[in-house]
Amino acid sequence: MLDIKRIPLGALLGLFFTALFLIAAIFAQWIAPFGLGEIVGNVWEPASAQYWLGTDNLGRDLLSRIIYGAQTTIFIAVLATALSFSLGSILGFTAAVVGGWFDTLMSRFVDLLMAIPTLIFGLVVLSVLPSTLVTLILVMGILDSTRVYRLSRAVAADINVMDFVEAAKLRGEGRGWIIFREILPNALSPLVSELGLRFIYAVLFLSALSFLGLGVQPPAADWGGMVKENKDGIVFGIPAALIPAAAIAALAISVNLVADWILNRTTSLKGGRA
Amino acid sequence: MAKAGTKEKPEILLDIRNLRIEARVFPPGEAPRDITIVDDVSLTLKRGKVLGLIGESGAGKSTIGLSSMGYGRGGCRITGGEVILNGRDVLKGGKQGFRKLRGREVCYVAQSAAAAFNPAHRLMDQVVEAALLHGVASRAEAEKRAIALFKKLSLPDPQNIGKRFPHQVSGGQLQRVMTAMALCSEPDMIVFDEPTTALDVTTQIDVLAAIKDAIRDTGVAALYITHDLAVVAQVADEIMVLRHGKLVEWGGTRQIIKEPRQDYTRALVSVHQIEHQEKKPGTKPFLSVKNVTATYGGGVVKVLKNVTVDIFPGQTLAVVGESGSGKSTLARAITGLLPPMEGSITFSGRKLANRLADRTKEDLRQLQMIYQMADVAMNPRQTVGTIIGRPLEFYFGMRGKERDRRVTELLEKIEMGKGFIDRYPAELSGGQKQRVCIARALAAKPTLIICDEVTSALDPLVAHGILNLLLDLQQEEGVAYLFITHDLATVKSIADSIAVMYRGEVVRYGAKSEVLRPPFDAYTDLLLSSVPEMEIGWLEKAIKGRRMESAGN
Amino acid sequence: MSSPILTLVAQRIALGLLLLLAVSVLIFAGTQILPGDVAQSILGQSATPASLANLREELGLNDPAYIRYFRWLGGVVTGDLGTALSSRQDIATSIGGRLWNTLFLAFWAAVVSVPLAIILGLLAVRYRNGFVDKLISGLALASTSLPEFFIGYLLVYFFAVKMQWFPGISTVYDGMPFGERMAAIALPATALTLVVLAHMMRMTRAAILNVMQSAYVETAELKGLSAFDVIRKHAFPNAIAPIINVVMLNLAFLIVGVVVVEVIFVYPGMGQYLVDHVSKRDVPVVQAVGLIFAAVYIGLNIIADIAAIIANPRLRHPK
């Protein structure tokens, strides 16, 4: 069984902060001391007992905005990851097991999409599409699903040629059994850790877009956008922009630590028991 | 072999005393701990003599061999004892001392020369490297010596083979080039680490003969490490039997193979001898392969050419051949994994569909398969109960208690208890895994089980147990086997009829007694004469009596 | 150099060109999915139907998509990238200086990061599982998690604002003295270096480790070669191709990092130009710049593959 003492310190920290961010995101409306757009003080006030992280470029409470920002950022990233993951893994598994023209067609198309750096392609598409939530999630999810596709296809293709899968095919098992009972349980550990990485990537991608002014649009708050709003303060020595940037880094590192731990834990498991 | 600075060379070249080697292992989820790989082993090797180290995997034989060079592979550490080479304890010499003796006093020949040569350099540069490094010879001298050694080891075109790159030379030849590399710096001793294990049987005999001649002519001493007693009997003066890192028995070659004193050694010596009475062929075969031709790459490479064989109920057809002979392809054609291009396969009087997808569930049930690597033939995420139980569910619709009862019965048939039902494959030994695979095949109540090299990845004693089990099961269940193997000793133990395959064709086919009775065709003769026998002097006799050159040398 | 290599290299280059062509289709198609069209976005919602029709005629928007694609492609091949909608300036002229600025920045970032990453990767292998190694994998973990603007603004905050060593805004102009130019790009180049360094280090480490664990390295050790000679004579020739591969992939990664870093430092390069015109919905500029980025990216990947082909002794010396 899972023993809490056996979890390495890094993973424990990762779990703690990931949970913290998740809680902040889910209960933002109840936790945040001030409203999202509420102007409570002067521009760029330093941290104080009242405003723990100070105020932003319009005099809004930075902590409250960080908490609301967590909600927007994590919400979009989670949906984009869910999309990229389901799309990529289903197509990747199918391509590996079915093979033939479907595999060739899909793989060449993915090669093509990956020949353009994701951010550049994202910018190209966003130059004509409006930056709405739906567009952002679709663009991020579809572009990122290429990576999930490559990984799941490779993992599934590796497993697909193992003797135990051949044995199942010789037994006459259907495609469903082979994908879900033979391949999937063995592909789970690299995929779960990839899930973490894809989520991080989605957070970073969204933040970069928002930072460039092409992601989440005001008045909604997300972390990348907050960096953009407050970046002008930096040259005056006001570190307000660094706080949402640090929040992004902290979330990404926490999830990375957890993903790393899951990967190590599950790959060292030869059998099915912990 | 005059070496500057040494006055009189001691008669005892290598003297290992109470050697103890440990390694740190990292079990998942546990604290790292040390395990003992070699425990209190002593040996002496006289100048110019050959000592064979023999044992199963995990016996610590390679580790002992490498300890003579002060080398520990993968975290192995020498934690006790002395290794005295040429009169000094090399373990006290430190890093500098090791570097002086490696490649000069002791050289190493690896199991896979193909991996042990650097792909980026020409063979000659690698062969003379150690001699130049230790200042044994000038480049010109060393190259001359290397060419002489190539000639001695009967390599083709000895003048020019050194100009080639490793990937341009076959496996058997590379193994001999590596021997030349070891001999080039005129060492006192060579460690041969399973030098012929990765080779085909007809190639092995050439390499073995070449190594033996080279040892005799150069007067070098050797530690010869192998798991095959018959092989080591051909080259060694003395044999040391090891098990689990401990010494079992040590004696002259004749004594070990003729009068073994320990039970374990006796078991190793007698391992190949299963008396099997050949069954008369029935009148009607239940499975007939007729004129089957199969290809890879859309008809480009013909891997099976016009193959015709029959299998009779309750009997065993052994298909023998070397790698590339098409024997596994035959199995793939019969199972429908590789639909034949021409010819037909008849089963119980009706034609079997070529493609797996077109076969009925009943046809699939009748043909079961067991694989060489039991590790990868079972889903690591399923328990033994699921693995054996699935065919019961799938073919017979058994559920719950009924299924569990049948699984328990099958586990008993393969001489494993009910306690294994909840285990995962990773928690089983190699032999147990193969037994579970047998039970899975039996669960379908097939008429034919295809056994693809099922014993070749196992240690001899374990393989012996599996063969006995298969024979017993044939008696009880009346199942027929198509037994694919490269090992003729196995064939003799289990077959009723034999098909010898060579380059995609069946070159000899019939009842076991007929196939193994002279006169032979050239290839069968080569194959039969290449199987090492546990007989001193067999190698010379075999080489002399050969009519055909082996393909892979 | 024998013919199989040449064939393979030629094949790889041809494949790359084909891919680039397909990418141009994709980029063109990607900008055709907008609701409304370019004329609409230039003139805004309040435009009269007549002026829209006029502009459409002028821009050739009434032709079918494939004709517009080939017209665009024909222009690109002959060096005519079209006219920016927002400023009515020739795109190729605007890009010229900016492309050079971007390459200048990326070049210096590469000059610093590549040797540094290889040396640190070697150190990590040399002291495997030791402190240096752990530090490197820790940094690599962090660097895959840090957004570029976090690194960028941290640098600005400390080195430009607090210590005032370098300018926080990288203004460059034609005829700027080399020293001043270097000072101006010091921070963005550092930011780019940090963005790719850890990743490149970790991949270099993996590539070298893979070679160090092969049987021929053991053979070399058992010949009595010193650790240095083992690496120099036996590991290095086999590690070079994977390392070049790592470097090229990371340079491709660096090209993407350039976009954000240029915006942070207000550096007049391609990235900033692209972002500006995405906000202005200036499709011709976005198409042109997107294609150039993709071309560089594909080019680096081709070089990586060619290096692997050339370094493979099996291909260089066929049977």
Automatic annotation (TrEMBL), chain B:
A single GO molecular function term of this UniProt record: ATP hydrolysis activity
Record-linked PANTHER family: D,D-DIPEPTIDE TRANSPORT ATP-BINDING PROTEIN DDPF-RELATED, TRANSPORT ATP-BINDING PROTEIN
Similarity comment text for this entry: Belongs to the ABC transporter superfamily.
Membrane topology recorded in Swiss-Prot or TrEMBL: Peripheral membrane protein
The protein's name in its UniProt record: ABC transporter ATP-binding protein
Residue ranges constituting the ABC transporter domain according to the UniProt record: 19-269, 287-528
Localisation: Cell inner membrane
Species for this entry: Allomesorhizobium camelthorni
Annotated keywords: ATP-binding, Nucleotide-binding, Transport
Gene Ontology biological-process annotations: peptide transport; transmembrane transport
Highest taxon in the source lineage: Bacteria
Signal peptide as annotated in the record: none
Gene3D superfamilies registered for this protein in UniProt: P-loop containing nucleotide triphosphate hydrolases (3.40.50.300)
CDD domains from the UniProt entry: ABC_NikE_OppD_transporters
GO CC terms in record: plasma membrane
A family per Pfam: ABC_tran
Chief place of localization: membrane
Automatic annotation (TrEMBL), chain C:
Domain ABC transmembrane type-1: 99-304
Predominant subcellular localization, coarse grouping: membrane
InterPro entries referenced in this protein's UniProt entry, alphabetically: BPD_transp_1_N (IPR045621), MetI-like (IPR000515), MetI-like_sf (IPR035906)
CDD domains reported for this sequence: TM_PBP2
Membrane topology label: Multi-pass membrane protein
Keyword Cell membrane: yes
Coiled coil feature spans: none
SUPFAM superfamilies: MetI-like
Any one GO BP annotation for this protein: transmembrane transport
PANTHER family: DIPEPTIDE TRANSPORT SYSTEM PERMEASE PROTEIN DPPB-RELATED (PTHR43163), PEPTIDE ABC TRANSPORTER PERMEASE PROTEIN (PTHR43163:SF3)
Protein name in UniProt: ABC transporter permease
One GO term describing the cellular component: plasma membrane
Keyword vocabulary terms for this entry: Cell membrane, Membrane, Transmembrane, Transmembrane helix, Transport
Subcellular location: Cell membrane
Transmembrane regions: 103-123, 135-161, 181-200, 243-268, 288-311
Upper taxonomic lineage: Bacteria, Pseudomonadati, Pseudomonadota, Alphaproteobacteria, Hyphomicrobiales
Keyword hit for Cell membrane: yes
Entry similarity comment: Belongs to the binding-protein-dependent transport system permease family.
